[in-house]
Design brief:
- By secondary structure, the chain is α/β, with parallel strands linked by helices.
- 35% of the residues lie in helices and 15% in strands.
- The protein is built from four helices and eight strands.
- The strands form three sheets. The protein has a four-stranded parallel beta sheet with strand order 5-4-3-6, with helices on one face.
- Helix 3 packs antiparallel against helix 4.
- It is elongated and about 65 Å long.
Length: 169
């Protein structure tokens, strides 16, 4: 099976095409860097997220680090030198570029990649986790009322249920 090459036209985040006019935020601790051993040390990179950040940057997207480490300062210039240099040293080594740093979201942020965020459907007040749980419950109920099918059909439905139950994020 041929895999689709990801580029600005085919890649989607949160169901939307890639934006070149808005920015993408990445948290440091637990998202792009492992911090399970230390609270201040920015440890080894978390490769899938680092790849995502590099891919977006290479496509010409504005990628930024949005972190509590940056405090409530809106721009690089206001972040204390020791904090900024500590983060950028890690970026130089693991990203190969120095993204903008911020401690704030704003109306131009397209998406935030963060290990602690809980994705909510815009203007609905429902998390995606709730949607997945509801879909799994509906499928389980539907399976109870299906006429007898072949083993293959039941296996397929069972696999769908397993996938839905596993989608908790």
């Amino acid at each position: 099976m041929k895999t689709k090459k990801l580029n600005r036209k085919t890649m989607r985040i949160n169901g939307k095409p890639i934006s070149l006019t808005r920015w993408y935020g990445f948290d440091i601790d637990g998202t792009i860097a492992d911090n399970s051993l230390h609270s201040w040390l920015i440890d080894k990179p978390i490769k899938p997220m680092v790849r995502m950040m590099k891919r977006l940057h290479k496509m010409g997207c504005d990628v930024r680090i949005l972190s509590g480490r940056c405090g409530d300062f809106p721009s690089d210039e206001e972040i204390p030198d020791t904090v900024r240099e500590h983060i950028w040293a890690w970026c130089d080594k693991n990203l190969g570029f120095r993204p903008k740093l911020t401690g704030r979201k704003d109306s131009l942020m397209e998406a935030l990649f963060d290990d602690r965020a809980c994705q909510v459907i815009c203007n609905k007040g429902i998390t995606y986790e709730e949607v997945n749980e509801r879909l799994a419950a509906c499928l389980e109920e539907a399976v109870k009322h299906l006429p007898k099918r072949t083993i293959d059909d039941k296996c397929f439905i069972g696999k769908c249920l397993d996938v839905l139950k596993g989608c908790k994020t």
